[in-house]
Amino acid sequence: MKLDMQQLLGNQSFLYKIIIKISETADISGIKAYLVGGFVRDLLLGKESKDMDVVVVGDGLALADELARSLKIKTVVKYQEFGTAMIPMKDIVLEIVTARKEVYQKDSRKPKVQITNLDEDLKRRDFTINTLAVSVNDDSFGEFIDPFKGLRDIKDERIVTPMDPRETFFEDPLRMLRAIRFACQLSFHIETNTFEAIKKYAVRIQIISKERIRDEFLKIIASQKPSRGINLLYDSGLMEYLFPELIELRGVEVLGKHKHKDVYEHTLEALDNISSVSDDVLLRLAMLFHDIAKPRTKRFVEETGWTFHGHEEAGAKMFENIGRKLRLPVRDIKRISKLIRLHLRPIAVAGEEVTDSAIRRMMVEAGEDIDALLQLCRADITSKNKDRVKRYLSNFKMVADRINEVEEKDKLRNFHSPLDGDAIMRIFNIKPGPKVGKIKDHIEEAILEGEIENNYESARNFVEKNKEKLIDLYLRND
Questions:
Q1: Which segments within 338-477 are labelled E, that is strand?
Q2: CA distance linking residue 326 with residue 345, whole number of Å
Q3: Tens digit of each residue's pLDDT (9 = 90 or more) over 273-319
Q4: What whole-number distance in Å separates Cα of residue 442 and Cα of residue 448?
Q5: What's the rounded Cα separation, in Å, for the pair 403 and 442?
């Protein structure tokens, strides 16, 4: 069977030109080359792909050098140990791979690589839907190679391993996460024996590096309905080794006439809610972990029932540890922790008299994430009580409207004192130090309380008028 590559690529004609270049270069070099894996799978699914993988039976690094010269690309990133090379291009990442197989030792995080042929290379791949190959050599251009019935499994929407799944997952435990990721991304199901093998070897996920786990987990969270992935992590046993904190959310406890809702089910519903309106993975992570501290702050108060006081602050601190475990960048950990800490604030503000001061403080704390916070808060409403939902949404709209009014009036986005440190040092004739910060905080507090407007002139007049008072408060004992 031969594939009409030009027709399958449709409006991605630039990819067809790259494939022709690969074909010409491989033929000149006397090397057999094949498009493989996800690129071929996505081609058959009618999906656009940003990654093109080429398996070479021979010297893949040498072919990469020749191909880069032909494409007039100067940079080739080589991984000598694995016999692979990456050629970065404007619209796609092109990877040239020497046919190989990878074997993990029992307690090793790093595979041993052995050079092999195409059959062995395809055999060592994770799932049948990724064992597809297409020849690009001129004499067999478009020839479709499907030794493990991957096309059938694409049609059946099935995730299954080409070899014994126990062997597949023992050799590379990351494939267990990849199975769940593909099931979520493609809306496929995981074949029964394959899923049972994941349950059997879930404990081995602990030998995989945190960075590789993070990358797969974020792809699961980025899928259309991430709750499915979280449930698969739980059902497979992987969650026990990745996020045991999420397991603690499950269940409903009843004392007398009082019970609380299942926080796990609420969390997944809220996660899908936010995912339906935002592709921001960090916002989705904030929702997944927004109630993570509820089990640890849960208290029962007679007559009142269950309370979770302080779970937002405790949850923000818990996520700092989770974020570090995931090897997330520090700035991302701080952003998510902030959203978790503030996730109750909009509704809390609505429950009081909605003063400009309360709105200003919330906006300043949220900073540039105020819109994300509002999205998070709205998606967090999952009550089955229609009257309660109606009341929450009404309060929420009132707060959102007031935020727009205050923002229009006070220009509080990315708020900071209109008088910077240099201006304060000049006015008071002082040197850099903590006292400058205290005066600056005093000015910001006056703005937040509505005593002065958020502009340079108002702030300067405020300082001049209250100069002696500020000196007494912060400088007199200098």
A1: none
A2: 27
A3: 999 999 999 999 999 999 999 999 888 777 777 778 889 999 999 99
A4: 10
A5: 23
